[in-house]
Design brief:
With 487 residues, this protein is of the alpha+beta class. The protein has 4 domains: 3-110, 2-Layer Sandwich (Uridine Diphospho-n-acetylenolpyruvylglucosamine Reductase, domain 2), CATH 3.30.43; 117-235, Uridine Diphospho-n-acetylenolpyruvylglucosamine Reductase, domain 3, CATH 3.30.465; 240-348, Alpha-Beta Plaits (2-Layer Sandwich); 356-451, Alpha-Beta Plaits (2-Layer Sandwich). 35% of the residues lie in helices and 20% in strands. The chain contains 17 helices and 18 strands. α15 (369-383) packs across α16. The two termini are 38 Å apart. Bound molecules: flavin-adenine dinucleotide. Flavin-adenine dinucleotide (FAD) binds next to β3, α6, β10 and α14.
Length: 487
């Protein structure tokens, strides 16, 4: 082992006064219960498994473990609790709140090798899967059986089902099918002390006391490690029809969504972005083309269920006449449809490639969107910072991704400092609209200070009490969601 690898050996427990260093004896124990190649300390592995897509926090993991079974996870957790070793559960590391970051010498437990789909049941419409299966692999396995798994995110090729559940991911089809929480029937979870909590469930109705699985959904690895899940599948949905609309203002989005509701047109996706986002994607991904000949202030990607092209046209026509739509494209092939989706799905990547970036994922009641948009622009203007604000999001469910993109060269860390005050003002604005500071990415490290913008002191106190029941030694993902059990 070289000296750089050695320097990573000194792991720190994050709770004050209870520091435990990771030493050779701990490593030997892990090597004793896992295969040789499942305990890694080379600098490349420590670097890549110590960070997520937040790209703000410098990684400093001590060791990365790759268990293959729930039993191995249980042994690791029992040992970490006994030795008071801080542990970070790691999925596909596409998280955007720093939840999977190891920056204080923690043990990282990766679910990469727990990647089997054990059973697809076409009668009960369920799939049983290990937590390390990627979302895309699960979608494809369902499709191969003529079934459908509705969760869908641009990060689907990398994010894990376990990570989706631990963050209660939302995504592109939330408006119709809900998020990760709505898809979960049962879970297998390893608790901090190594006990295996088997909450497997293949029935859809079960009213037997508290529904314990709910604690783990959206808990960001702070209450237990999800190793298996039983998820709901659906029959393949009716055919869907996509259209790409050019709009003048946010008011037009409301008019279109409300007309869909009034005419019983079921929306399966409703994604918006502005000219800046469009230009950024087209600049970064040269193979993509603007489907319109000119530029418009807003674009809406609207997917609806079961409507034929002619029915869609007769829905859109009066919207044109009233001036709610300036131009529209209805794709004529699945290749064209994929190209339109690619514009939307590549916005996040184009932003990351374009300079220092700070993202957030707020939600507000959709009816307030036009008022909120004006107040947000005002807030940004007043801050007078050397950056652009580029927004996009799952507007159909009131979820906006506000992005500050730096126009100058600076580190992510400095850029976050520069935008801190603005971010607080935006959160205050979101609060005044009764919205949430995190619609889908979670709290992680990034927003833990800001949790009081959404949660009362009583709620926070109860959350900490729940954490101390499941993880009294505080070994599971310390420093995420809360700083410690007592702060
Ligand atoms: C391009 C891009 C687009 C995205 N789009 C969306 C979107 O539309 N909607 C959305 O909601 N999110 C989106 N995200 C964010 C991210 O993909 C989701 O949060 C995703 O659910 C994270 O899954 P992961 O496997 O990558 O988890 P990770 O990033 O590895 O971990 C996330 C959190 O879950 C914990 N965790 C991971 N696995 C487990 C487990 N098995 N048991 C217990 N805890 C665990 C980690 O400790 C961490 O706290 C996007 C990200 C990118 C990069």
């Amino acid at each position: 082992m070289n000296s750089e690898e050695n320097s990573h050996m000194l792991g720190q427990h994050l709770r004050g006064g209870e520091t435990t260093l990771i030493d050779q004896q701990h490593i030997k124990y892990f090597q004793g219960i896992l295969a040789n190649d499942a305990v890694k300390q080379d600098s490349q592995t420590l670097e890549s498994y110590g960070r997520d897509w937040t790209k703000k926090y410098p990684p400093k993991a001590s060791v990365v473990l790759f268990p293959k079974s729930t039993e191995q996870v249980a042994k690791i957790l029992a040992y970490c609790t006994q030795e008071k070793l801080a542990l970070v559960p790691s999925g596909g590391r596409t998280g955007l709140a720093g939840g999977a970051v190891a920056m204080a010498g923690e043990v990282v437990l990766s679910l990469d090798k727990m990647n089997k789909i054990s059973k697809i049941d076409p009668i009960n419409l369920t799939v049983k899967t290990e937590a390390g299966v990627t979302l895309q692999a699960l979608q494809e396995a369902a499709k191969a059986k003529e079934l459908f798994f509705p969760l869908d995110l641009a990060a689907k090729g990398s994010c894990h089902i376990g990570g989706n559940i631990a963050t209660n991911a939302g995504g592109l089809k939330f408006i119709k099918f809900g998020g990760a929480r709505e898809q979960v029937l049962g879970l297998k979870v390893v608790l901090a002390d190594g006990q295996v909590l088997d909450l497997d469930c293949s029935v859809r109705k079960d009213n037997t006391g508290y529904d314990l699985k709910q604690w783990f959904i959206g808990s960001e690895g702070t209450l237990g490690i999800i190793t298996e899940a039983t998820l709901k599948l659906s029959p393949k949905p009716h055919s869907t029809q996509l259209c790409f609309l050019a709009l003048n203002s946010c008011d037009d989005i409301l008019a279109i969504v409300s007309a869909c509701h009034m005419q019983q047109i079921s929306i399966t996706a409703c994604e918006y972005f502005g000219t800046d986002a469009m230009n950024l994607v087209l600049g970064q991904f040269k193979q993509l083309q603007n489907p319109f000949e000119e530029s418009y202030p807003f674009y809406l990607l609207l997917e609806v269920e079961g409507t034929s092209e002619s029915m869609l046209e007769s829905f859109l026509e009066p919207m044109f006449e009233k001036g709610h739509i300036l131009d529209a494209v209805i794709p004529q092939s699945s290749a064209q449809e994929n190209d339109l989706w690619a514009i939307r799905e590549n916005i996040a990547e184009a932003l990351f490639a374009s300079g220092p970036l700070r993202k957030n994922d707020i939600s507000i009641p959709i009816s307030d969107l036009p008022k909120f948009e004006l107040a947000l622009q005002d807030c940004f203007k007043k801050a007078d910072l050397p950056m652009r604000m580029i927004n996009f999001g799952h507007v159909g469910d009131g979820n906006l991704h506000i992005n500050y993109l730096g126009t100058h060269k600076t580190s992510q860390e400095e850029f976050y400092q520069l935008t801190d005050q603005l971010e607080k003002e935006v959160y205050q604005l979101v609060k005044s609209f009764g919205g949430s500071i995190s619609a889908e990415h979670g709290i992680g490290i990034l927003k833990k200070e800001d949790l009081p913008y959404r949660r009362s002191a009583l709620e926070l106190d109860l959350m900490r009490k729940i954490k101390s029941i499941f993880d009294p030694a505080g070994i599971l993902n310390p420093g995420k969601v809360f700083d410690s059990l007592s702060d």
